[in-house]
Amino acid sequence: MSSPDSTALPTDLAGWLARLEQQHPVSIELGLERVAAVAERMGLLDAPIAARLISVAGTNGKGSTVAMLEALARAHGLTTATYTSPHLLRYNERLRLDGVEADDDTLIAGFHAVETARLGGEPISLTYFEAGTLAALHSIAQHAPQLAILEVGLGGRLDAVNILDADVAMVTTVAQDHAAFLGTDIEQIGREKAGIMRTGRPAVLGSTTLPASVRQHAESLGAPLFALGEQVTRSEPDANGEWQWRGSIAAHTADNPPRLDHLPDPGLPLDNAASALQALALAGIALDAERCRQGLAEVQLAGRMQWLGNWCLDVAHNPHAAHYVARRLDARGCAGTRYALFGMLADKDASGVVVELAGQVDAWVTVSLEGERARSAAALAETLTASGQPLAHCADSVAAGVAWLNEHLGGDDQVLVCGSFFTVAEALGEWQAGRLIESPVVAQPSVAQPSVAEDASTRDKEGSA
């Protein structure tokens, strides 16, 4: 039987994704030596891939920060490229060029370039995520945007994205997650996240509760710090939902800081919005108030407090993210029963998530997920019972859970779909197929979604779900 390296190269995206799954013995292997060697062969380290580069690391909030950076930059007329992971429905979601998902041909060209370089000397084995990252960087370099925004996958210092030097580094939040790879020492996790920072280049700290190690690492590098609550501040929304931002850049004095007023609520964490504005200012973008309002009003991000009628979809899969979701649900209220359609992977802190959401959920519907890291609905039910939470139903799948809820929901009831990217992705698939019934009583504007593709099995090769 021939090895993957000696077989004919695929001609379609599904074939490439299947090939990438098979060419490395483990799905996650932190380290930069292999990926940097292939990047050097590809010429990705010879020159910047974009005029400006912002990298975003953190436990939670990366996706929303990237989405707001992109929307704000595009509102200012910049050409952009963004790279994120994991995807929900289609691998194409991971790479966006000028606000549009990359088409199959663009992705395939990137994979082909990676494979040519990988086998262009002594063969170098790459993980699924590493190959995908290099392919995305190749496509971005070909596009040559005015601003590239890269979401760091798992960790920071040893993540494949970190082979490039960002002009501005951002750390959104630091909390425990991926303990098998990052450990449980919060200070060490902070040091890993801060590993994306560079000597003398600005770093934005997007939370007021980051571990001390993040700041210490920045200071050891001489990286100028712009921290939320210090150089960067924001107000709470007023009665009209508007808020104010104050930032800091060298062109302004302490007595005359850059400021933006009457900003709309983007429906995403305002700490991330404030940090995104600061990062753009540090990247040399002259912030225009009206264009900032436009960008924040138009930003969209699937699976983050996304309302489809009376169904709320959020990929929260750790206690820190669940805490944010609970606060948003509390502010919204519910006139009927609020259910949680709950599916999590076995290596996630289900008990911690339940504790955070307990005050906002009246009844739980547990669902089983598939795959090597799956956790059954019955196991989740045991977690709920141990926490004294009311279990409404156990379902063998997300689809079965959606079907049960469709039969039991009243007009004033709500459903929170959460616990994993897998859970939300499958619920979105049910919605697109017309099997998730939205209540007309409390319908809300929904985010436009991409089409369903056949690559769902490859969604979680980085362990983020």
UniProtKB/TrEMBL annotation:
Compositional bias segments (type: Basic and acidic residues): 456-465
Region of interest called Disordered, as start-end residue ranges on this chain = 446-465
Keyword Transcription regulation found: no
| GO-annotated molecular function | dihydrofolate synthase activity; tetrahydrofolylpolyglutamate synthase activity
Assigned EC number: 6.3.2.12, 6.3.2.17
Superkingdom to which the source organism belongs: Bacteria
From the UniProt record, list the reaction(s) this protein catalyses. Answer: 10-formyltetrahydrofolyl-(gamma-L-Glu)(n) + L-glutamate + ATP = 10-formyltetrahydrofolyl-(gamma-L-Glu)(n+1) + ADP + phosphate + H(+); 7,8-dihydropteroate + L-glutamate + ATP = 7,8-dihydrofolate + ADP + phosphate + H(+); (6R)-5,10-methylenetetrahydrofolyl-(gamma-L-Glu)(n) + L-glutamate + ATP = (6R)-5,10-methylenetetrahydrofolyl-(gamma-L-Glu)(n+1) + ADP + phosphate + H(+); (6S)-5,6,7,8-tetrahydrofolyl-(gamma-L-Glu)(n) + L-glutamate + ATP = (6S)-5,6,7,8-tetrahydrofolyl-(gamma-L-Glu)(n+1) + ADP + phosphate + H(+)
Task: Give, as one word, the top-level EC class.
Answer: ligase
Assigned keywords, A-Z: ATP-binding, Folate biosynthesis, Ligase, Magnesium, Metal-binding, Nucleotide-binding
Q: What is its pathway?
A: Cofactor biosynthesis; tetrahydrofolate biosynthesis; 7,8-dihydrofolate from 2-amino-4-hydroxy-6-hydroxymethyl-7,8-dihydropteridine diphosphate and 4-aminobenzoate: step 2/2; Cofactor biosynthesis; tetrahydrofolylpolyglutamate biosynthesis
Signal sequence interval, chain numbering: none
Q: Which InterPro entries match?
A: Folylpolyglutamate_synth, Mur-like_cat_sf, Mur_ligase_C, Mur_ligase_C_dom_sf, Mur_ligase_cen
Q: Which PANTHER family match?
A: DIHYDROFOLATE SYNTHETASE-RELATED, FOLYLPOLYGLUTAMATE SYNTHASE-RELATED
The UniProt entry's sequence similarity note says: Belongs to the folylpolyglutamate synthase family.
According to its UniProt entry, the function of this protein is described as: Functions in two distinct reactions of the de novo folate biosynthetic pathway. Catalyzes the addition of a glutamate residue to dihydropteroate (7,8-dihydropteroate or H2Pte) to form dihydrofolate (7,8-dihydrofolate monoglutamate or H2Pte-Glu). Also catalyzes successive additions of L-glutamate to tetrahydrofolate or 10-formyltetrahydrofolate or 5,10-methylenetetrahydrofolate, leading to folylpolyglutamate derivatives.
Name of the protein: Dihydrofolate synthase/folylpolyglutamate synthase
Q: Which organism is it from?
A: Franzmannia qiaohouensis
Encoding gene per record = folC
